[in-house]
Request: fold
Amino acid sequence: MENPENPSSRSGPALPVVPGTVIGLDIGGTKTRGVRFEDGVVVRDESVGSANVQNVSREAAAANLAELFGRIGGGRVDTVLAGAGGIDTDDDARALATLIEPHVPGAAVSVVHDSRLLLAAGRTSTGVAVIAGTGSAAWGKNSTGQEARAGGWGYLLGDEGSGYWLGREAVRHSLRRMNKGLEPDALTRALLESCGLDDPNKLIALFHSADTGRRYWAQRAGVVVQTADAGLEVSLQLLDQAGRDLAELAAQVLRQLGITGPAILGSGLGMNVGALQSAFRAGLAAHGVTDVRVLDQDPVFGVPQIIAELG
Reply:
């Protein structure tokens, strides 16, 4: 789709205008978004399936990137900057870069952890950015250039406060009620309907099925949000715990860096779920952190800021 919007016109300080043609990629657990900037103006904005090899096969990632570049590539591209989860080493970055480079011959390709996009999209070069989407992670930088991270271990080891965590906790809640001989409550009923099931006992097999996975259960976070909006106490408690867990990640990074903020909350859950945002603010207030911001634009629009910082 055509999208002539210029991110520099959004509220807050203007982002840098990077000359030439720049493609920014935000590679999440469920989708890959690509934006083509020409002299700072957005001329193409497209999304396809995930190209994160932690969530899909290398073949699927390559196919999704090919589809995306078929829509936003073409002609001369000067720079590509991609943010993706799971970029923990130079080898991780290089592996993703090798999938991108064939689509943009001659372009300078850089790959960073996707939490860096959040900080840049928040129009600041220092502070901590917290991802609350399919997964969770925090990354920050101080004025001396020191960097620190917390979380981002993936769903098998962590991802507290993420969509996956909320989906899994909804399943666990439903199974605990079943074990106690209790009737399904509103959260369990909503979860069963979302999964197309008629009995909580069937959640066990579905959860371990090869037909579901991290993305599937992260999408079930929606039933927690919906039932919380309806006032269900257990769902409100889950969102409160998620927000406070995310706040702990942010506080850990801020301590390591010796700074007090800002803390920027972003990604799908972080930008859209008020109860989680309130818990995040409360959790950080307990650590004396008061400069807390919810991202007001999608992370991919932080790409020009990072490119300018990289020089």
In short: Residues 1-12 have pLDDT under 50 and may be disordered. The two ends are 30 Å apart (CA to CA). DSSP finds twelve helices and ten strands in the chain.
